[in-house]
Amino acid sequence: MPFHYCYRCCAAFRPRYKRLVDNIYPVNPEDGLIRANLDKLIFYSCSSPEKLDRIGEYLAQRVNRDIYRRKYAFITLSMEAMDQLLASCHNRALNLYLESFLLTIEDLLQSDNPDLKILASQSFNRFANIEEDVPQYHRRYKFFVESFSQICHSSHNNPDVRTRLRLAGLKGIQGVIRKTCSEELADSIWIEDRMNLIMPSLLFNMQDVRPLGDRRTPDFDSESQQNDPSTIAESCLCEIFKRTPFNCEEILLKPLLAHLDNHSLWTPSDFAMYIFERIMCTVPVHLTYRVIAILMGHLEASRKKPAQIRIEINNVLTRAISIATGDGAGGPSVLMIVDGLLKQLQNFTSAKFKSVPEEDIAFKDGIITTLASFSKACPDFQKTDILTFIVERIPVEKENDKGLQRVLLEAVAKVAEHYKTVQLHSIFKNDLVAEKLTYGLLSPDIATRLLAHQVLHSLLDRHGNVDRVKKVR
Question: Which of 34, 248, 255, 407 could bond 199 through an S-S bridge, CB–CB 3.0 to 4.6 Å?
Fold first, then answer.
């Protein structure tokens, strides 16, 4: 008896779900799936959901076998069938099917064929759009984060393939974020290990494609931008910060700041400025002060770096503060921001310079300008608190603190330029403020006395006569 007759006889005794799966494949894979038989398989899986997990296991076995045999056309057909089953079947048995589905995607991501990795990303995104009724506590997405992040850094020799791979990796990360954020009890990505992989992948694609001078906000919905890795990375970055839970800002910003440091992206600061503009415009308003605090802490940690880098970080900080105050997000964080800026001035005066370099002087002037522009955006009652807070920090007894005294008076003078006094007792209600200014007026240092007079003139002047006094000889 010929072999094919024997095979046909044995095939009749195979389980029905296997026969239905085998029947969807054509002899020539270029003809595509047999639609009539695929409809039969979908109908069978919907009417007998207890068989869905076995169907998934069998399809996964076929894909694994075709990967070994390098039958890539049949792999594409198998994934199309699995995607169709995923989209058509919505019941509790789907959770068992998803285990085989995700294992199949893992096998595709581990292959060396770029088309299979792109196919895996597409299937994972379809899975991410499925809303499951029952949360899966045991499911972990660590492997997918690692794999998609690795694809985002693809250095394939073919530019077209490299772009397609990076797009697949970015869309895969986007799918992981969407899936984990929609399930509160699922595996969380808001941990350091995950973000150490995700953040550098996004920034790498943004800096690699987008010119430093191009700071226009892209249209995420346009068809042309959907094939741009930089746009997809930016969209993913905005989605992450938009979904940021409370007290997770440092987990996001720590790898972001480390990437900017490691790749020397602070000088020039165009790229870093653009990144933080997008972050400040995306993050919830009540969390903007946390972003500013973390950025200010990074500036403090960079005190031993070259002055030019610190100047650029301060420029980014100034822009972030201006966006936060423009959104009305100052609130109780006002004095926290002022205190951080005053620490930078204190670090400047405590540095041991035989002759102060011009770059460090520019950094000091930049900090004072940041402080002045921040206070300018605050209401009058907060300007009063800022002035009082700075004046109280002015030392008066120690002889070796003249440099700090002069710098803080310079900061007070800058802030006072934007303050319009209505009632004098609102400024001098604290005796310590009047005492500190008196010490400045009686200081043996000429520059200190001049700054103290400038502060008093700005506070007492109600009719704009300060400019006339400056011109008197």
Answer: 255
Q: How far is CA 426 from the centre of its chain?
A: 42
pTM, 2 dp:
0.84
Give the position of tokens 């009749």.
12
Cα–Cα distance for residue pair 212/31, rounded to 1 Å: 47
Q: Write out pLDDT tens, residues 274-310.
A: 999 999 999 988 888 889 889 999 999 998 888 899 9
CB under 8 Å to 282, separation ≥6 — which residues? 238, 241, 242
Surface-to-core class of residue 444, CB atoms within 10 Å of its CB (0-12 exposed, 13-18 middle, 19+ buried): exposed
Cβ contacts of 100 within 8 Å, gap of 6 or more: 53, 56, 57, 59, 60
What per-residue confidence (pLDDT) applies to 130?
A: 82
Q: Is the separation of the CB atoms in 40 and 17 below 8 Å? A: no
> 334 and 386 in contact (C-beta within 8 Å)?
yes
In terms of DSSP H, where are the helices of 24-156? 35-47, 52-69, 72-88, 94-109, 114-128, 142-152
Q: Say whether pLDDT at 1 is over 60.
A: no
CA distance 430 to 425: 9
Q: pLDDT, tens digit, for every residue of 436-459?
A: 777 777 777 788 888 887 887 777
| Calpha distance 265→261 (Å, rounded) | 7
Q: Which residue in the block uniquely carries the two structure tokens 């002037």?
A: 365
Token digits for 24? 């969807």
C-beta separation of 369 from 316 below 8 A: no
Q: Is 122 exposed, middle or buried (0-12, 13-18, 19+ CB in 10 A)?
A: middle
- Extract the tokens encoding 100: 């085989």
Cα–Cα dist 48/20, whole Å: 13
Burial class (CB in 10 A: 0-12, 13-18, 19+), 123: buried
Start-end of H helices in 302-443: 307-326, 334-350, 358-376, 380-392, 402-416, 431-441
For 413, the token pair is 């003078």
Mean pLDDT of all residues in 56-80: 94
Query: In whole angstroms, what is the distance from residue 52 CA to residue 56 CA?
Result: 6
Q: Give the model confidence (pLDDT) of 259-278 as tens digits.
A: 999 999 998 889 999 999 99
Contact 58, 102 (CB under 8 A): no
**Mean pLDDT estimate for the chain:** 83
Checking if the pLDDT of 212 tops 50, the result is no
